[in-house]
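Action item from last meeting closed. Structure (168 res):
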């Protein structure tokens, strides 16, 4: 039986988005139509350009900027608008990547029932991959697969900064 799943990639380690990008390409290679939604990011990172060239649709918040403030109602509203847009067009897709959705799941000003219902709806259409640090317990419980990426050592801690192509 071919059932859709919710996969959560979380933890402090590097590679959550990269893993989801790889999975998106795998879906595309299997003939699936993919929607890639980037929460809290402006959608101008290197992986987004290549995903678009490959034919993967991308939604992002062009007004996003770091650092992320999970208590800022205006920022959260823009993220929820991205999610609502994805739900509205979901029948066109067989796979969904919700990059940094886990952060949204852990915001204490978001209606968790809205998030849960949105995920259920997306999952009814195809597989869903959710990435980001701090996945809420309810999201982990709801998921079919959870991978926690552990940071053993990180170059940021050694004073080596972000580099285009490696981090964005």
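Sequence:
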């Amino acid at each position: 039986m071919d059932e859709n799943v919710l996969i959560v990639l979380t933890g402090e380690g590097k590679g959550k988005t990269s893993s989801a990008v790889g999975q998106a390409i795998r879906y595309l290679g299997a003939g699936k139509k993919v929607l890639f939604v980037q929460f809290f990011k402006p959608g101008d990172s290197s992986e987004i350009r290549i995903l678009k060239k490959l034919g993967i649709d991308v939604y992002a918040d062009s007004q996003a900027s770091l650092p992320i403030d999970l208590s800022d109602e205006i920022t959260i509203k823009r993220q929820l608008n991205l999610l609502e847009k994805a739900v509205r067009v979901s029948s066109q897709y067989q796979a969904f990547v919700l990059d940094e959705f886990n952060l949204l799941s852990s915001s204490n000003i978001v209606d968790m029932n809205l998030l849960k219902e949105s995920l259920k709806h997306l999952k009814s259409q195809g597989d869903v991959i959710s990435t980001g640090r701090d996945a809420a317990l309810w999201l982990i419980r709801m998921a079919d697969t959870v991978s926690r990426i552990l940071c053993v050592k990180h170059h940021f801690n050694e004073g080596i900064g972000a580099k285009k192509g490696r981090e964005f």
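Note appended to the action item: The chain has a mean pLDDT of 93.
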